[in-house]
Amino acid sequence: MKDLKDTCRIAVIQAAPVLFDKAASTEKAINLIQEAAKEAHAWVSIGVSERVEETATLYNTNLFFSPEGEIIVHKKLKPTGSERVVWGDAQKDYFPVAETPWGVMGSMICWESYMPLARVALYNKGLTLYISPNTNDNPEWQATI
After folding, report:
1. CATH number for the segment(s) 22-144
2. Using one digit for the tens of pLDDT, what is the confidence trace for 75-91?
3. How would residue 11 be classed by pLDDT, with cut points 50, 70 and 90?
4. What span, in angstroms and rounded, lies between the C-alpha atoms of 143 and 75?
5. Alpha-carbon distance 133 to 103, whole Å?
6. Hey, where are the domains in the chain?
């Protein structure tokens, strides 16, 4: 069995965009997060709306930044309800995970956590740290995840 670290620190930041320049704002955000992750020797998880240039499709996406600056991308498999008007479906067989000092880390976004086979796909990869970003903070949601 892997010897896991017993402490996991969490932090939140907010930075101003480069006004009227999407590419520069995105680059600034990525650089700030990569620098912070490297400096703190930390893993970072953030949620973004990602637009693929070739198709203009929007994806509800979670990004992991490693302490080395690597970026691991998870796109939400199936948008929930009215989200389908805005966001596209991701690859059905893509469940990225990362090796961390606390074990294997993976992510499901919001209602993906209620998809049993998607969770099984992560569990089959030896998941020990499960990131489930969402916008719902009511007690019923928290108790089921």
Report:
1. 3.60.110.10
2. 988 888 888 888 888 87
3. low
4. 24
5. 19
6. 22-144
